[in-house]
Amino acid sequence: MKNSDIASSQPRPRWKQWLIDHLDLDSQTHGQLLDDLQRANDKKILHTDEVKMIQGVLEFGARQVREIMIPRSQISFIDHDADFQQILSAIAETEHSRYPVMNKNKDELIGILIAKDLLQYIGRAESFAMHDIVRPALLVPESQRLNRLLAEFRNSRSHMAVVLDEYAGVTGLVTFEDVLEQIVGDIDDEHDDEEDLNIRLQAPNCYLVDATTTVSELNQVLGTHFTVEDYDTVAGLVMHAMGKIPNIDEELILDEVLFRIVESDSRRILLLEVQTDLNQSLAD
C-alpha cells in the first residue's frame, strides 16, 4: 500500500473535521486556510476569539521558543549563595512563583527555586539550605518548536523551562503559560497590569488600538459611530475598507478618523494608531 493511501485512510483530526463540517472552505494551502478563517470572522460565521484560537493552533507547530521566550535581561535570578531573608525580599519585590537559581557570577545554572518550597522554613530560617529545595531545570534550545516544548512540559510536569543558546549559555526562559497563550491569547493573572487595555491614549486625540478590539468598544471609547453590525473588529473594518491586508504605515481615513497600521503580518493587522478630530489636529 502506498504512503498516500495510508495517509488518506487515517481519520482526520477532530478540529479539521469540524472546519469541514461547519465552513464552506476551499483552501488549498495553510495561508489560504488562515485567510478563509479571517473572512469567516468578518462575516460573523465565527466569533473573533474562536478564529484567534484556531489561527493559534494552525501556527503553533511552526513557532520556535526564541519567538516567545523572556530574554535573559528581563529574568529575575536568585543567587545560589543568597540567605533566606535575601530570597524572601527578592520574591516580595518581583512576585514570581518560580526562579532560575544561578551561581554568584551568573554563568552557571544551578536549578529552579519554587517559592512555595520556602514555606517550610518560616520560623526556622537558620535551617535553610538551598541545595535541599532547588529542583532540576528543564533545559530547551532556542530553536525548539512549541509543539515539542508543550509535550515536554506535559511529560516532565514542569511549568518553566530555561532556554539555552548554541553554546549552552542561558539566553532566556519560557513558561507553560507563555506557550498556552499562543493558542488561547493573553492570560491575565493576579499580578498582570489591570491597565493593559485594548485602546490606550498616546496623545490628545491619538490612540493605540489592538486590531482585535471590537467596533462597539472603539465607538464607546472614541465616540465614533461606525456600524457595529457590519464588522466585529477594527481589523475587519479597516481591511474591508482597504480591500486588502495593509502593510505597516499604510493609512486610511474613515468618517474623519485616521487609521494607521503600526503592526501587521502577511495575514492580519495586529496594531493600529487611530486619530480623531482630524480637522482640529490640522488647525493646530
Explain what you see.
This protein is an alpha+beta fold and 284 residues long. It has three domains: 13-60, no CATH class; 66-184, CBS-domain, CATH 3.10.580.10; 199-283, 2-Layer Sandwich (Uridine Diphospho-n-acetylenolpyruvylglucosamine Reductase, domain 3), CATH 3.30.465.10. Helices cover 35% and strands 21% of the residues. The chain has eleven helices and twelve strands. The chain has helices spanning 3-9, 14-22, 30-42, 48-60, 84-94, 130-133, 146-156, 176-184, 215-222, 234-242, 278-283; strands at 70-71, 78-79, 98-102, 109-114, 138-141, 160-164, 170-175, 199-203, 206-210, 251-254, 257-264, 269-275. Strands 8-9-12-11-10 form a five-stranded antiparallel sheet, with helices on one face. A hairpin with a 6-residue loop joins strand 3 (98-102) and strand 4. Helix 3 (30-42) packs antiparallel against helix 4. It starts with a helix and ends with a helix. The model is unreliable at 1-8 (pLDDT under 50).
